[in-house]
Amino acid sequence: MKNTFKYLILGTLTLNTLFSSSTVMADEGKHQMGDSSYSKKLSSSSENPTAPSRKLASTASEESDIEHYKKLQRRLGVDIGLMVPMGDFSGSFGSTSLIGLHFTWEAISPFALRVSTHRASGYHKDGAASGKLTVSQINVGAQASFDHGRYLPFLIFEGSFNFNDVAFGTNNVEAGSDTFVTTVGLNVGGGVDFIVGREMSFGFQATYHYLVPKKVTRTGAAMFNLGSSYATLGFRINF
């Protein structure tokens, strides 16, 4: 009985020793694994530092947007401005608002095919009852643009088909209409565009419109040149 009890005590002490050793070894293993994981985290943190916050417009992205815009071959634009009459037009009519559209297709840089149209209509200097002038154009020509960073100066040369109509109270012009070609002409102008985005720019344009004279007879009055020249000034938006 005593021997049996002695063996039980020795077996218990042996198991307790083995269990304690295994526990210590397991704890050391976990500690080593924890250190290894922590080291890996530190290593990865040092290799991949936190990226800086993005800016709304960095220099690199601005340059990319500018280059993207310059590579666009086709652009559509809207023109808004003033028509400044000359010749017989200026004797009776003042400057009036103008609206137009233009389309460019760059064929061989810096030259582009250009198609445009505009229309302006204004009343007589003495009031609406005294008369009204309407000028419209459909133009085909070329545009040359020059690269100066964000700024793009340009020149325009076009041939024009003009649709002009004028009325002086009850005395209407007997020839000429805004639905039939009145005369032809040439447009020469220029301006500058300012790139504001990947596919948009704002610009300013000034153009002189020379028209082949078209003398018409007013009822009970002197001849009137329905092909008088004029100038246009205004802003443009390109897409």
Care to describe what's here?
The protein has 239 residues and is of the alpha+beta class. It has two domains: 1-49; 61-238, Beta Barrel (Porin), CATH 2.40.160.20. Helices cover 27% and strands 50% of the residues. The protein has three helices and eleven strands; from the N terminus they run H-H-E-H-E-E-E-E-E-E-E-E-E-E. An eight-stranded antiparallel barrel has the order 1-2-3-4-5-7-8-11. The longest helix has 46 residues, at 2-47. It is elongated and about 65 Å long. It starts with a helix and ends with a strand. 23% of the residues are buried.
Shape: elongated
Helix proportion of residues, in percent?
25-40%
Poorly predicted sequence stretches spanning 5 or more consecutive residues: 1-59
Instruction: Kindly report the average pLDDT value.
Output: 79
CATH class of the largest domain: Mainly Beta
Number of helices: 3
- Placed side by side, the strands forming the largest sheet appear as 1-2-3-4-5-7-8-11
Please state the CA-atom Rg, rounded to the nearest Å.
Answer: 41 Å
How much of the sequence lies in strands comes to over 45%
Q: How many structural units, i.e. domains?
A: 2
Task: Find the structural class using helix and strand composition.
Answer: alpha+beta
- Give a count of the beta strands, DSSP E runs of length 2 or more: 11
Task: Find the CATH topology of the largest domain.
Answer: Porin
- CATH arch. level architecture of the largest domain: Beta Barrel
Order of helices and strands: HHEHEEEEEEEEEE
Main beta-sheet strand count, sense and barrel state: 8 strands, antiparallel, barrel
N-C termini distance: 105 Å
